[in-house]
Amino acid sequence: MSKPRLLDRLARCVGAGVIFFTPQQELLPYSFSVCHNFSNNVPEYQALILGLEVATELNIHQLEIYGDSQLVINQLFGDYEVRKAELIPYHDYAKRLLQSINLVSI
């Protein structure tokens, strides 16, 4: 019996999510999945970008960012250089989105 193709494709999918906690402690969850061959940091950047886009749409001007990728966080705040060419467009877009938020802490 051959391996189902759908399962093979799902093995290359990654999911990412963003959760906003409002000042009233309400949860606003957002999630997505990507099926492509990337480094692990591409979905990390995509989750960050999703969160920043939603924050911009909701006119959020003060934001605390929590992430499990220290590489992405350190690249975002200039502590580490972005060396992989595939990450540069994500990094640049995230930096542009951050400009619309007045106060950011990590």
Automatic annotation (TrEMBL):
Matching InterPro entries: RNaseH-like_sf, RNaseH_domain, RNaseH_sf
Pfam families: RVT_3 (PF13456)
CDD domains membership: RNase_HI_like
Domain of life from the UniProt record: Eukaryota
An example molecular function term from Gene Ontology annotations: nucleic acid binding
Domain RNase H type-1 as annotated: residue spans: 15-103
PANTHER family: RIBONUCLEASE H (PTHR48475), RNASE H TYPE-1 DOMAIN-CONTAINING PROTEIN (PTHR48475:SF1)
Name listed for the protein in its UniProt record: RNase H type-1 domain-containing protein
Upper taxonomic lineage: Eukaryota, Viridiplantae, Streptophyta, Embryophyta, Tracheophyta
